[in-house]
Write a structure and sequence with these properties.
single chain, 195 residues, mainly alpha, 2 domains, 0% strand, flat
C-alpha cells in the first residue's frame, strides 16, 4: 500500500498534465510525507496527547482511516525506525546517483530530482519483475520509455544511458564478489593441491 502511495505521488509530481501543476503536486507529496512522518513520531510517544491518527476526522473523511490504522499497527508492533532510516538513506543515495549520472550523460535535457525519483521507482519495479536475471531488458525498457516520452531523448541515446545506469549500479556488487572470490582463491588452491 505504501509503495502504491509513493508511486502515485511520484508519478503525479512528474506528470505534465495541463490541469496539474508541478508545484501543487510537489506540495501534495510533501504533505503526504509530513503525515507519514507524523505517524512515525506519534508511534514513539508513550501516551497520545491527542487522538490517534486513525480517529482523526480529516482522515476518516478522506477514507484514509484504514491506512492510518494499518500504519499504527505496523508502528506499534515492530521496530521500524532503524530500517526506515537505512531505507531512506539507500534511496537518497540511489536518487543522487541517478541525478548525477543522467545530468552527466544527458546534459542537454532538464533532468531534476523528481525525474531521478521517478527513474528510481521504475528501476525498482523493473528489477522486481521476475522476467529476466537482474531485470535485464525490462530495466532498460522502462528507463528508455521514460526518457523518450518525457524528455524526447532519441532512442539510441536513451538505451545507452539506461545501459550506463544499469552498469553503474551493478558494477560495485560485481567488483565486491570478484574481490571476495579472489581473496578466497589461494586458500582453495592450497586445500586442493596440498590436502
Amino acid at each position: 500500500m505504501n509503495g502504491l502511495v509513493i508511486l502515485a505521488a511520484t508519478i503525479g509530481a512528474t506528470s505534465q498534465f495541463t490541469s496539474v501543476y508541478i508545484g501543487r503536486s510537489t506540495l501534495l507529496t510533501l504533505a503526504a510525507t509530513v503525515v507519514l512522518a507524523g505517524l512515525l513520531i506519534a508511534r514513539f510517544r508513550a501516551n497520545y496527547v491527542i487522538a490517534p491518527p486513525s480517529q482523526w476526522a480529516v482522515l476518516k473523511s478522506a477514507r484514509l482511516d484504514t491506512f492510518a490504522r494499518q500504519a499504527e499497527t505496523l508502528l506499534a508492533n515492530q521496530r521500524i525506525a532503524q530500517p526506515a532510516f537505512f531505507t531512506a538513506l539507500l534511496w537518497t543515495t540511489n536518487v543522487s546517483l541517478i541525478l548525477i549520472l543522467f545530468k552527466t550523460i544527458l546534459p542537454d535535457i532538464h533532468f531534476g530530482v523528481l525525474d531521478a525519483i521517478t527513474l528510481q521507482v521504475i528501476a525498482a519495479l523493473a528489477i522486481a519483475l521476475p522476467a529476466s536475471p537482474a531485470g535485464l531488458g525490462v530495466f532498460e525498457a522502462g528507463i528508455v520509455a521514460y526518457l523518450t516520452t518525457m524528455h524526447g531523448v532519441q532512442t539510441e541515446r536513451a538505451i545507452s544511458a539506461a545501459l550506463a545506469y544499469h552498469l553503474s549500479i551493478t558494477a560495485p556488487h560485481t567488483a565486491i564478489v570478484i574481490a571476495f572470490f579472489a581473496s578466497m582463491l589461494p586458500g582453495l588452491l592450497r586445500a586442493r593441491l596440498w590436502p
